[in-house]
Amino acid sequence: MSIVGFNFTKVAVERTGQVEGEMSIDNNVRLLDVEEIPLGSDDKNKGLRLKFEYTADYKPDMGTMAFHGEVLEMLPADEAAEAVDKWKKDGAIHKDLMKRFVNAVFRRCTVLAILQGREVNLPPPVRLPRLKEDD
To answer: What CA–CA distance (Å, rounded) separates 111 from 50?
Structure first.
């Protein structure tokens, strides 16, 4: 249905070496846990807390970022129960829910990574738009 909350619980940024030469940045989102939570007084809808870890690794050995947090999702009660059951059974969630979850995490974490990276002189973890020079 819809994302109703987003919270960071840990923000860690570290520059471990000089930023020079060729480098690669590996961004990753990992779902850590899914649990049903009460949201409001409506029995038709339930909340899900989806705990995550976002990492950006600057290679070779230039720095790392690790953000932990949770996304709160409101779903019909039967879909919420089904998502928790699938997580407990398979360690996965349905594709549509996963797509919303990953997009929300990347959207919020990319902005935070740009801001936090600036504080420790790490480049943005994504390529930013740039005007090309005319020939």
So the answer is: 20
Residue 134 within any structural domain of the chain:
no
pLDDT in tens, 49-69: 999 999 999 998 899 999 999
How many domains does one find in the chain?
Answer: 1
Query: In terms of residue numbers, what domain contains 51?
Result: 2-119
For residue 57, tell me if it sits in a domain: yes
Q: Rounded CA gap, 63 and 119, in Å? A: 12
Model pTM above 0.70: yes
- Compute the distance between CA of residue 25 and CA of residue 57 in angstroms, rounded to an integer: 5
Predicted confidence (pLDDT) per residue in 83-120, tens digit: 999 999 999 999 999 999 999 999 999 999 999 999 99
